[in-house]
Amino acid sequence: MYKYERIIYWSNDDNSFIVEVPELPGCMADGKTIEEAIANAEIIIKEWIEVTLERGLEVPEPKGRLMYA
């Protein structure tokens, strides 16, 4: 399991739970249950990191809990 912060919320538009990974721009997943959304997020995080490395870009280190204004 990756150590990036995840934000989980219900989306009426998608009729699914959404998991966003704020430290990895554009990285998000969905699922009909919270468990499914979290499992899908793990897959997407792995793929996000793989694609980023393939492009020769830097993968951000997990910072833990982020602070929002």
List the helices and strands and how they pair.
Elements (H helix, E strand, L loop, with lengths): L6 E5 L4 E5 L7 E4 L2 H21 L15
Describe this structure in words.
This protein is of the alpha+beta class and 69 residues long. Helices cover 30% and strands 20% of the residues. The protein has a 3-stranded antiparallel β-sheet with strand order 1-2-3, covered by helices on one side. Strand 1 and strand 2 form a beta hairpin. The protein is globular, with a radius of gyration of 12 Å. It starts with 6 loop residues before the first strand and ends in a 15-residue tail after the last helix.
Number of helices: 1
**What's the SSE pattern?**
EEEH
Give the C-alpha Rg: 12 Å
The N- and C-terminal alpha carbons lie at a distance of: 28 Å
**Overall 3D shape:** globular
Q: Largest sheet, described in full?
A: 3 strands, antiparallel
Query: Level of helix content?
Result: 25-40%
**What is the average of the pLDDT values?**
93
pLDDT under 50 segments (min length 5)? none
- What is the percentage of strand-forming residues? 15-25%
Class based on secondary structure composition and strand pairing: alpha+beta
Largest beta sheet: strand ordering: 1-2-3
- Count every beta strand, where a strand is a DSSP E run of 2 or more residues: 3
